[in-house]
Amino acid sequence: MIRFGILGLGNIAHRFARSAQLNPNVTIEMVASSSQAKGEAFCQKYGIRHYTQDYTQLMDHPAIDAVYIAVPHGRHAVLVEKCLHRHKAVLCEKPLGLNAAEVSHLMQVAASEQVFLMEAVKGYFLPARDQLKEVLKQGAIGTPLYLEANFDSVVPYQKGKYLFEKGQGGALLDVGIYPLSFALDMFEGDPVVAQSKLVMSQGIDTYFQALLNFADGQSCLLEGSIDRARPRVALIQGTQGTLEIPYYYRCQEFTVTSKGQSQKYESSWHGDDMSGEIQEVVSCLQAGLLESRLHPLCQSLKLAQLLDDIRTKAVCFDVG
Amino acid sequence: MIRFGILGLGNIAHRFARSAQLNPNVTIEMVASSSQAKGEAFCQKYGIRHYTQDYTQLMDHPAIDAVYIAVPHGRHAVLVEKCLHRHKAVLCEKPLGLNAAEVSHLMQVAASEQVFLMEAVKGYFLPARDQLKEVLKQGAIGTPLYLEANFDSVVPYQKGKYLFEKGQGGALLDVGIYPLSFALDMFEGDPVVAQSKLVMSQGIDTYFQALLNFADGQSCLLEGSIDRARPRVALIQGTQGTLEIPYYYRCQEFTVTSKGQSQKYESSWHGDDMSGEIQEVVSCLQAGLLESRLHPLCQSLKLAQLLDDIRTKAVCFDVG
Asked: Looking at beta carbons, which residues of chain B come within 8 Å of A196?
C-alpha cells in the first residue's frame, strides 16, 4: 500500500483523488492547502482523515510514503526539493520545473538523496500509446515523417490566477508538455527547435507554435494556447498513410488511413486517464526503482530544454 | 474597347465572361473549345457571336486584341507563346507556367515580341488589398511578423480531369499561388522556403504546407489542398495585434484586433472579384504598357520559383 499526501487542492488534485480511489494499492493519508475551506471540503468528499494548512507538517509526516504535488507551477521545484530531502517519493505535476536548470537541479537532488521522483505526464502511461507505437512499428502508415499536435483552449482571464502570472503562467508552461511529450513518444531521437512563435499578452504567452526537426528528417508542428479553441488532435503522416489521434494526451482511440481505407483502433483505460500514471508510481515504489522507465527524469529534462528553446528562439507577438 | 478571345471554356471562363460583361470597355469577340456543345452553349449564354474549335483560328483573328487563356495548366505555356508570337496581348490563368523555366521563357518571348502578358491572379487587384496594406503601414498591428494563409478544398477524384493528372495536376499548381501571392503582397522582400511537405496520392500532391522565412525575420505558414476542407482565411500577426482576413484571395472585409479591441473594415469590389483583374488588362493596354505594375512578370517568376522550391525541398508523404 502506497500512502500519499497531496500538496495543493485545485482541479487536478480532485482528479488525482478520484483516480487514486480506483487503485487498491493507494490511500491518501493527508492533504494540505492554505485554504481551510478547501481542505475540509476535499477531505469530506474523498473520505480523507488528515488535513493541514502546514505543508511542512505533511512532508514530515511518517505515515506518508509519497507526495503528489499539485500546486501552481512556480512552486513545484522548491516543494519537490523539500520532499526529496525528507525522503518522500514525489509525483509532481507537469512541468517538473519552470526551466531546464530547475529540472536538472531536482534530478541531482533525487539522485543524491536516492528518492523516487517522477513528473506527472499521464499520456506516457496509457494503453493506447503502446498500441499506437505498435501500429507505427508495423508500418501501418509506412515511414512516419510528420506529426502535428495541438492543445488549444480558451481560458478566461482571471486576475491573480497563476496561469496568468508572469514567470509561472502562460500556455507553454501549462500545456506545452502535452504535444511535446507526444512527439517525443512517437518519434525517436532528439529534435531541435527550427522555428517557434509566441503570442504574448500582459507578460504571458497565450499561444505558442513550434516546428521541430528530427535528425532523420522527421518534423513536427506543435501548438498550444489558452486564447483560442479548436479540437485537440494529433496527426501523424507517413509515406503510406495517416494516423489521426483525437485527444492524444488521454487517448482511447485512433484511426489509421492508408490507401483510401480507414481502420479505427480502440483501447480503454484501466480505470481512468490518470490510473496509468498512479499505477506507475505504485509499481516503481514496490520494485524499489528511483525513476520511471516510461518517463525517466532525463526525459523530463529534455522536455524542459525544448520548452526553454521554444521560448528562447520564438518570434514574439505582443498583443498587449 | 478591348476585344477578347477566350481559349478553353471551363468554370473559370464562365466567371471571366460574366465579369467581362460588367466592363463597358470589354467585349468577347470569339471563344474556342474542342467541345462544340460547350462552345455553342457558351456563346448563347453570353451573347458571343463567334465560336471555333480551332485555337489557331482564334489566335490569328484580326478582330481580337487580347486572349484570355483558361485551358488546363499544362497547356498554358505553349498557347501563351503562340499568342505572343501573333502579337495578341495575353491574360493567362494562374499558374502562367508549370515551373520557373516555362515562366522565364515566356517573359523573354513577351519582351522580344513587345506584347502585353499578365498572369491572372485576381487578388492583386482588389480594393481591399490596398486598404489592408494601408492598415498595416499605419501600424494597426504593430510590426507585422507572421502570416498564415490556406486554400483548402475537397475536390472529388475524377478520372481524366487535369487536376488529377501527373505533371499538370495537384494542389500546389492549382491553388499554391493564392496563399503565396498573398504573402508576397503583404510582406516585403524575397522569402526562402525553410521547410515544406507534400501529401502525394496517385502521383499528384493533394496537400502542401510550406514555411517561408523573410530576411527581416518575418515568416509565413502556407497551406493548400484538394483533399480536405477548412475555412479559407489568412491571419497576420504583429507585435501589437492580429489581422484576420476571411477569403483573402477575394477579400471584401477584414478585422483588426489590437489591445482587446476589434475593428472591422469593409470594401466592396467594383463589379465582382474578377473585375479588378480585367480592368487592369484594359488599363495597361490603353496605356500601352507591356506589363502590369501591380502584378509584373518578375513577380510571376518569383511565384513560380517559390512553387518549384516548395516542391524540391518537400518532405513527401505518398499515401497511395
From this structure: none
* Claim to verify: residue B162 and residue B309 sit in the same structural domain: yes
Quick one: A188 and A148 in the same domain?
yes
Same-domain check for residues A100 and A151: no
CB contact under 8 A, A240 and B315: no
Helix (H, G, I), strand (E, B) or coil at B199: strand
Number of domains in chain B: 2
* Residues spanned by the domain of A208: 124-273+304-318
Contact call for A237 and B145, based on CB within 8 A: no
Clarify whether residues A254 and A147 are in a common domain: yes
Contact B242 A217 (CB under 8 A): no
Q: Which residue of B has its CA nearest to A213?
A: B195
Give the closest of B239, B316, B319 to A317, CB-based. B239
Q: B148, B235, B317: best mutation site toward chain A, by most A Cβ within 10 Å?
A: B317
Locate A139 and state its grid cell: 508500418
Residue A155 lies in a domain: yes
Residues linked to residue B265 through DSSP beta bridges, in sequence order: B254
**pLDDT tens, chain A, 320 aa long:** 999 999 999 999 999 999 999 999 999 999 999 999 999 999 999 999 999 999 999 999 999 999 999 999 999 999 999 999 999 999 999 999 999 999 999 999 999 999 999 999 999 999 999 999 999 999 999 999 999 999 999 999 999 999 999 999 999 999 999 999 999 999 999 999 999 999 999 999 999 999 999 887 889 999 999 998 889 999 999 988 999 999 999 999 999 999 889 999 999 898 999 999 999 999 999 999 999 999 999 999 999 999 999 999 999 988 87
CA distance A134 to chain B (A): 20
Does some domain include residue B207?
yes
Residues A128 and A144 in one domain: yes
In chain B, which residues touch A (CB < 8 A)? 142, 145-146, 194-195, 197, 199, 211, 213, 217, 219, 237-242, 257-260, 315-320
Q: Which chain B residues are Cβ-neighbours of A194 within 8 angstroms?
A: 194-195
Q: Is B206 exposed, middle or buried (0-12, 13-18, 19+ CB in 10 A)?
A: buried
Q: Are residues B57 and B100 in the same domain?
A: yes
A-B Cβ pairs (cutoff 8 Å, strict): 72
Question: Which among B251, B114, B278 is positioned nearest to B185, based on CA atoms?
Answer: B251
Assess whether A25 and A99 both reside in one domain: yes
Chain B neighbors of A217, CB-CB under 8 A: 315
B65 φ, ψ to 5°? -90, -35
d(CA B67, CA B50): 14
Chain A residues touching B239 at Cβ < 8 A: 316-318
- 8 A C-beta contact, residue B67 and residue B52: no
Q: Dump pLDDT digits (tens) for B64-79.
A: 999 999 999 999 999 9
Are A313 and A184 members of one domain?
yes
* Nearest CA among A59, A52, A118 for reference residue A86: A59
